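@channel sequence for tomorrow's demo:
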Amino acid sequence: MKSKLLKLTAAALMVFTIKVQAQAPATLGTAIINEEFENWSTAATPVPNNWEVSPANSIAAANVQKTATVLTSTAVINPVLTGTNSCKLINTATSYTPGVFAGATMSVTAGACYQVSYYARGKGTISVQVTNGSAATTTGTYGSANGQSVSGKAWHRFTQTVTAPTTTTNAQFCINVKSTSTYTAAGGISITGIDVDSFVVQPYTPVAFASLDTIQYTTSASGNSPFYGQFVTKTGGIVTGIVLSSASTASAPAYSGFYLQRTGATAWGAAYVFDATDAANLAPGDSVTFGCAVDEYFNMTELEGVTNFVKVSSGNPYKALNNTTAGGGVNTQTLQQENYEGFLVSLSNAVVGSYTATAAHEYGQGSITDASGVACTYDFKSGFYAPHGTSSTTNAGYAPTIGTAYCVTGNINYEFSAFNIIPRDSADIVGNCTVLGIEKHNSVGANVYPNPMANELNIQLPVAAAKVSVSITDMMGREVVAPVTTSGANININNLNLNAGTYFVKITADGNTQITKVIK
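structure tokens (generated this afternoon):
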């Protein structure tokens, strides 16, 4: 969706350049480790040959066990899972033990990237690491900030990426597990811990640039990014939403990451960035660039392991895909497609069909249906709904009325095996759409800045308007700045003596209305 601004901002040009220079995923080099765990020592407590349990504070040798590789189906696994043995790892602690299981030492290059793939089954969380090879110290970066969740009897292939921290001829690639328990299934199947097999490490040179479109676009049935398990040196876009963690409160916000979107993109060009550190200093409209690893967390593409983060500029315009654009946009039916993952969308007159906020369904999920007639899932989770939400996961941030039409704005997230609309805060959920409809929401195309604000606001319209009215309300709907009437394309409102908090700026320009949230 193209910006209505006649003059492209520097940030928009930056993102466009990244798109033009996008490349295919990196070509993997010859494997430096290709371990099938077939050969084990004959000691009283055997471990795989050429592997060792180190450093000294790592998992006990008894929790590294030889087990049989048994396929639970006749389906062909590609790359082929071969051999008769696999390696079982057990660590019931809720944190990783550095160097849980380290491989034979070898030479690595500082800053070089390595794609690590392996098969796993059982129950727990698994991640990988490259260390400096010391028996006392492990340094490096985990391949996934979240780790990979394993829960099942069937072998599943995981892919992660790691970066060598230093140049050393004594490096080790490690498998780390935590929170392991027992997976049980019908037929008497019981798997304790995590079984690992076909552990492969391949070096590669990351691509210099990859646009969000290139990272996200896929023809795979799984929906996984073609860059899954690789590092991208640089990507970027415009921030459309900040994600608060479940521990967040109005007085003490805590962050998980942010959503990013390429200016003008109508498909594929959006993503979620798992980055709590930088999210704390961002606001929608910020233009950013960074390097990152590409992960698939429960089949939701996540950009993580962020490096070289740069906030290029603030106050850039961005627009949500909507269900009122003739011949385009999205609705509750079409948004359930991989190409809209991460996008900010606005749905007008969407009727709530169900809602559950009990402790058993603590995330406030339900169904919502617009004129398409096909329902999708929405998620009024409290962590995404501060400051009106609470830190309690058993109390959703908003309780809608079943059968009522709402206007809902939010980012599309894939969780619980479904595409969900995640509102960013209270301004994204509006009842009585005849008063404030998405067909009017942000239809002005105004750029409101700075945000966060101090004591003044600037409003830039794409074209001059004969009549412009601007008013400001607080989170309770109380008018704190009476309507200011003016004209033109550039409006300045100063001497705003407001308390710290969140406010809504209502702009009406020649009959069109926009409401924008600002923070003081």
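heads up for whoever presents: The longest strand covers residues 113-131.
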